[in-house]
Amino acid sequence: RPAGQNPETPPPQSGKGAPEERDLVYLLLHGQLTPADLRRLRPDGFSIPACRMVVEKALAHLEQDGRVGLRQLLDTIVDDPECGSLVTELSMREEHFDDVRAHIQGCLDTLDRKQAEGALRELIMQLKVAEREGRIEDAHALNARVNELRMQKAGRPAAVVLSLVKE
Prior knowledge:
The protein is an all-alpha fold. It has 7 helices and no strands. The chain has helices at 19-29, 35-40, 49-59, 70-77, 84-92, 100-132, 136-154. The model is unreliable at 1-15 (pLDDT under 50).
């Protein structure tokens, strides 16, 4: 165990399974996110709890120009038992990205896609439950929402309606 680490404190979660989350938090901590990038960040889109917490706290420390007040943010979270070790690790790290702007956009797009896929899975589960329980009205409404999300994902307008409901 590294010196000074409390036995109850979980090890740093640098987001090995979600590199886009780790990279966005890294770039956020290094002042690379523009106000437009920050407006696209949604804490609930982060699956790693420590990353989610950093984003929540960062969005609570926006300055008048729409950027994160990094000094104030770091002072607030560096000693936080849930995300402090991640913040320390990422703020000290030296990463290089060939095209930072393109990388940020790619990470944000990946988060948006993952969130949309999760919403689609949830709606499909609700649709299946409604079908099993015989709630035809609910099933039709859920089916319409599922189709709308699928069309958005495919990049087409949702004018074409496909029916998944067993009639």
